[in-house]
Specification:
The chain is an alpha+beta fold and 519 residues long. It has 2 domains: 372 residues, no CATH class; 124 residues, Immunoglobulin-like. The chain has 9 helices and 25 strands. The strands form 6 sheets. Strands 9-8-1-7-10-13 form a 6-stranded mixed beta sheet, sandwiched between helices. The two termini are 45 Å apart.
Length: 519
């Protein structure tokens, strides 16, 4: 099948003004076993659409399925006047340790805008036009914004690290011009070529072939649209997992020609809603941008309305804003940046049972003239006994996914000998779901080792592990466990994946074997 490609541009905004946190009445959350802390962002604006930066905790009320909940913490995350606030200094990474935790980065980011330019849902001609638009709009990205460049074929791939050098990004984008081909389109061209070049005495056979081609073409169109939809939603989820460990608001500006929410073959609200809920769970707000704008060859009104329905649904579930009738990327980025200036983080402990259902969230503000926008709800993850085991296909999919995940933050201290790899692992406690256990609380995790050679992943091995926390003791920031895996002689690097069984969240990181200490 031909490869479909998406380009993603991530814009990192340097940290926020921390002095305002005290004014907002920040309260540190308290660890509670058997409950889930639901944290999310709100964007507060006044009647003129300007960000509100001095909201107080006592002016906020959280409702979970129409039931009021006690606020566990409340903190201002936005920047009142500038996106160029200095970031927090990086934390020193201990020698011999590998991590996917963002706080160890050279410039730890906070509050983020990722621009995802979708080439899956475009023709080759549209891709060229879309790339030209992107190159022009990169000139208008604020100078204080940190921009990273990603490409997604079947998966997301980072092409360029985060930078303030827009020219460097443009040069990389021009060098890596992606095009989309499919075997579906190729096979259709082969059939048409046969029909046009066939000999006259083959007319009857060719007519039969033409009739068969017409029937098959409908099936191919349906399969092609199904594949486009699946790859698009999977790509957006992959970017969300990659950014999950970044604190603050994560805004994803999705520039796309889009795909319809309904078509001749059915309605896809459930699929789009499920992917949107996954993004919302990672605190990623999506800002869809119509790549067509207002060209003379714009889709027919009915078709365009179905495509806009997809954008509106994703934006509403995640707490973003959809841009219609305008393909100005800079304006969409400005809108996302303006929302960041009025962003607050808050959270509560869910009182309902973990039922794997989507629960509605609403926030009310008592200050007159102030409105808030946020994601529509949260998923109440099932307990470990109800959470399904991952099939081999799921582990394999993560093995081939170029982008790693920060949804579960992990530190790994590896050592190896000729035939084994020993891993000392520490997992951030806040990223796990604990259950009551004898003498304390426990979390159940799975750790997978993906072995890779120069030709790609070769195998995936999975082990289970338990993490215990004693009752009455101070809750640590990280919880340790260890694992040992056999190692093939041909392996050049490995990927470590840690999954919390209760919530289904996972984190991953890659380890080059030539940099690992030997026993």
């Amino acid at each position: 099948m031909r490869r479909t490609i998406v380009v993603a541009i991530g814009v990192l905004l340097s940290g926020s003004i921390v002095g305002n946190a005290q004014q907002s009445g920040q309260i540190a959350p308290t660890f509670r076993a058997g409950t889930a802390l639901v944290d999310f962002n709100i964007v507060a604006t006044d009647s003129k659409g300007n960000p509100v930066t001095d909201l107080r905790r006592d002016e906020i009320a959280i409702f979970d399925d129409d039931q009021v909940r006690e606020i566990a913490f409340f903190q201002f995350e936005g920047a009142a006047s500038s996106l160029a606030s200095p970031g927090n200094p990086p934390v020193a990474l201990p020698a011999g340790t590998f991590t996917n935790r963002i706080e160890y980065a050279a410039r730890p980011p906070k509050n983020l805008i990722a621009i995802v330019v979708d080439l899956i849902n475009t023709s080759i001609g549209q891709q060229v036009e879309l790339q030209n638009q992107l190159l022009q709009n990169l000139k208008q990205v604020p100078a204080d914004a940190h921009v990273g460049l990603y490409v997604i074929s079947e998966h997301a791939v980072a092409l360029h690290d985060f930078t303030q050098d827009a020219e460097s990004l443009k040069a990389r984008l021009e060098k890596n011009t992606p095009t989309v081909q499919t075997t579906l389109a190729s096979s259709a061209r082969v059939v048409q070529q046969l029909l046009s070049t066939g000999a006259p005495h083959h007319a009857e056979s060719l007519r039969a072939l033409a009739e068969a081609d017409a029937r098959i073409q409908g099936d191919l169109d349906q399969q092609f649209m199904k594949t486009r939809r699946r790859l698009t939603l999977q790509a957006l989820e992959s970017v969300g997992h990659h950014l999950a460990g970044t604190p603050g608001r994560k805004s994803l500006v999705w520039v796309s020609y889009g795909f319809p929410l309904t078509d001749f073959y059915g309605t896809y609200t459930d699929q789009v809603s499920s992917a949107s809920q996954e993004l919302a769970t990672q605190n990623v707000a999506v800002y869809p941008v119509d790549a067509q704008g207002l060209p003379p060859y714009r889709n027919a009104p009915r078709e365009q309305g179905r495509i806009e329905g997809t954008s509106e649904l994703i934006a509403s579930i995640t707490g973003g804003r959809a841009t219609r009738n305008n393909n100005d990327l800079a304006k969409a980025v400005d809108a996302a940046a303006e929302d960041i200036r009025g962003t607050y983080s808050l959270g509560f402990y869910a009182a309902n049972s973990a039922d794997n259902r989507w629960h509605r969230l609403s926030v009310k503000v008592t200050r007159p003239g102030v409105s808030v926008r946020h994601r529509q709800g949260y998923l109440a993850s099932a307990s470990v006994n109800e959470s399904p085991d991952w099939p081999h296909e799921r582990w394999n999919e993560l093995a081939y996914r170029p982008l790693t995940s920060t949804a579960v933050r992990v530190d790994v201290r590896p050592t190896k000998d000729a035939t084994r790899l020993n891993l000392s692992v520490e997992v951030v406690v806040d990223d796990l779901q604990f259950r009551p256990a004898d003498g304390g609380t426990a979390a159940d995790v799975e750790i997978a080792l993906v072995e890779k050679t120069t030709k790609g992943p070769t195998n995936v091995r999975v082990q289970s592990a338990g993490i215990q926390l004693p009752t009455g003791a101070a809750v640590p920031a990280v919880a340790p466990f260890s694992a040992t895996f056999p190692l093939n002689a041909q392996t050049t690097s490995v990927r470590v994946i840690v999954r919390d069984r209760a919530s289904g969240k996972f984190g991953s990181l890659d380890l080059p074997l030539d940099k690992l200490p030997k026993q």
